[in-house]
């Protein structure tokens, strides 16, 4: 059995390497063809791993002495040659790993993917693509870009749509993924110049199932498989509904625990709330692939906990299993 | 007692004039110094008014024969001279009314405000500014622009901040309103060129309490009084959290009515849910002033019902009462 190997940069996220290791060990126990190369401070890693049970044939530790910090810029990728992020990227570049997962700083990660892993042929802009929870039980929606590039052209958005469609076919198993363009209104004349350019290009591209513009109001409705946006708009829209979800759930919790009678009544509904809260818990969709890179590269929230890292590692594993890079290459070449 | 007069364009919204009239009659009964001039189809208006009790000295009906439809463009403002929207704008221009409220089409309304009411001196871009519900019981937040202008410069955003600050002082009674800039990150270098320009201008403006960038995640947290944005970003952010709020509440409702036991338990918590749902119900903040116009001009959602129109009319009334135009003029002149 050929192992799927993830180079896991465990340094540089807000919560240290403990949740990262916990998540990885959990996924290793569930996926028997998964191998994890932990990249980071060997001493800390070994101390943590010593407390765990796992298949030693599928775990490796590579020591690094530097860390890309959250405050570091893109040039630190060139400066910190012995950082865990750079080392993990190099393992992927050199074919020792199939993919990288990191919870580290965003801008250096994007730069590192460009410099070390290189973009796919024909792609000039990369895009972060998380999978969004929706109220449609039969459909998840992928939203991109949510912040990798904030200055783009219409043709970049078309490329996003092509890559995301190939990804949705490969990973979500959707035959003809429906694509919409995030915009401030449904009419095709709406938005900025790049919206109108992208609209035209996508509408004319016979390999895409483009259904038109979509307002941000419907992102979580599960009306389409893929929503395309510039990184500025996508970032604002994503964080906006995430914030509302979190705030609304906390307001409901406060209202239900306001007095003892409510607390008692609410007890029997705990399961019902958990169902909804879990569905919209952004910890379960904390990961995003950086699309447009020639290798599989996943970023988890900087504040990831075990649950978040687990979700991101699982997405990384599924991207490897479904050979998404080959499929995207072929789609771009069409 | 001097009457505050609203010219109310009751045609052109999705639900016809019945909810509009219901809302106006309700507010007339609560505010004894309010006068409403209903502008629209006289026959329909009189038929509806005949079913109502109200102070006839504070109600007027002006007949118009045309309607600005939702599908109309900005040029229809010039073409449809006997439309209810144009007539209502002219009543304000000519001093027969202190303000206009409409649920009609957005683009023609913005154009009509520019052509007929004129912008404030020194203002080149107008901005829609709704008041946003927040989880902070002591603070409402005003978000602007949410879609009047999608191509702006840094200096336009500074003007938005100046006008919104004057408005917050006058209407919300906030002494030194705190202003933040909506952006994809907190660092001052983040975003597009206009963000960095606006950041600099607002930071250097001693009449503003500028606190820096804010991510869309925190819009509903009530951290500041005013959030400034370009109309593209503001529109995406606003509709994104509105959509999530609606979807999350409907998911919770579905989870709580999934079986008979849950239904019974949920019954006793109805009041708790109502509290939260009401707070975040966008019907209660369906109205937005168009800032930058030389008269008070309010737009309510095209799909406004009685509750929405009532909220928007009440905001219009409060803007008149607090003489916001004079105060904004003086703030711009500083």
TrEMBL record, chains A, B:
Recorded catalytic reaction(s): these are: a fatty acyl-[ACP] + phosphate = an acyl phosphate + holo-[ACP]
**Subunit architecture:** Homodimer. Probably interacts with PlsY.
Q: What protein name is recorded for this chain?
A: Phosphate acyltransferase
State whether keyword Membrane applies. Answer: no
| Chain coiled-coil ranges | none
Function summary: Catalyzes the reversible formation of acyl-phosphate (acyl-PO(4)) from acyl-[acyl-carrier-protein] (acyl-ACP). This enzyme utilizes acyl-ACP as fatty acyl donor, but not acyl-CoA.
Cited PANTHER family: FATTY ACID/PHOSPHOLIPID SYNTHESIS PROTEIN PLSX, PHOSPHATE ACYLTRANSFERASE
Gene Ontology biological process terms from the UniProt entry: fatty acid biosynthetic process; phospholipid biosynthetic process
Q: Please state the protein's primary subcellular location.
A: cytoplasm
GO molecular function terms attached to this record: phosphate:acyl-[acyl carrier protein] acyltransferase activity
Instruction: Identify the keywords attached in UniProt to this record, alphabetized.
Output: Acyltransferase, Cytoplasm, Lipid biosynthesis, Lipid metabolism, Phospholipid biosynthesis, Phospholipid metabolism, Transferase
What is the similarity comment for this entry?
Belongs to the PlsX family.
User: What gene name is listed for this protein?
Assistant: plsX
This protein's pathway: Lipid metabolism; phospholipid metabolism
The record's section on InterPro entries has: FA_synthesis, Phospholipid_synth_PlsX-like
The UniProt entry, under Pfam families, shows: FA_synthesis
Q: Which HAMAP family match?
A: PlsX (MF_00019)
Localisation:
Cytoplasm
UniProt-listed Enzyme Commission number(s): 2.3.1.274
At the top of the EC hierarchy, this enzyme's class is transferase
* Keyword Transferase tagged: yes
Please give the GO cellular component terms listed in this UniProt entry. cytoplasm
């Amino acid at each position: 059995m050929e192992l799927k190997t993830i180079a896991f940069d465990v340094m540089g996220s807000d919560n240290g390497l403990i949740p990262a290791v916990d998540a990885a060990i959990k996924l290793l126990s569930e996926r028997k063809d998964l191998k994890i190369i932990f990249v980071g401070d060997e001493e800390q890693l070994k101390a943590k791993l010593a407390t765990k049970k796992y298949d030693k044939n599928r775990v490796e530790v590579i020591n690094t002495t530097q860390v890309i910090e959250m405050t570091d810029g893109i040039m630190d990728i060139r400066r910190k040659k012995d950082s865990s992020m750079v080392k993990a990227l190099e393992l992927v570049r050199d074919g020792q790993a199939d993919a990288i997962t990191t919870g580290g700083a965003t801008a250096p990660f994007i730069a590192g993917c460009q410099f070390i892993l290189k973009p796919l042929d024909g792609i000039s802009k990369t895009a972060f693509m998380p999978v969004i929870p929706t109220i449609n039980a039969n459909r998840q929606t992928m939203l991109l870009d949510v912040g990798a590039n904030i200055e783009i052209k219409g043709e970049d958005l078309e490329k996003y749509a092509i890559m995301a469609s190939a990804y949705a076919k490969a990973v979500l198993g959707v035959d003809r993924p429906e694509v919409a363009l995030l915009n401030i209104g449904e009419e095709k004349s709406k938005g900025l110049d790049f919206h109108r350019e992208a609209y035209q290009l996508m509408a004319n591209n016979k390999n895409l199932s483009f259904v038109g513009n979509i307002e941000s109001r419907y992102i979580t409705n599960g009306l389409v498989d893929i929503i395309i946006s510039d990184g500025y708009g996508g970032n604002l829209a994503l964080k906006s509904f995430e914030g509302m979800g979190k705030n609304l759930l906390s307001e409901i919790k406060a209202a239900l625990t306001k007095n003892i009678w409510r607390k008692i009544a609410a007890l029997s509904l705990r399961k019902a709330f958990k169902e909804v809260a879990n569905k919209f818990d952004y910890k379960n969709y904390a990961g995003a692939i950086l699309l447009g890179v020639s290798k599989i590269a996943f970023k988890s929230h900087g504040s990831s906990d075990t649950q978040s890292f687990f979700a991101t590692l699982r997405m990384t594993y599924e991207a490897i299993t479904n050979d998404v890079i080959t499929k995207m290459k072929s789609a771009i070449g069409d």
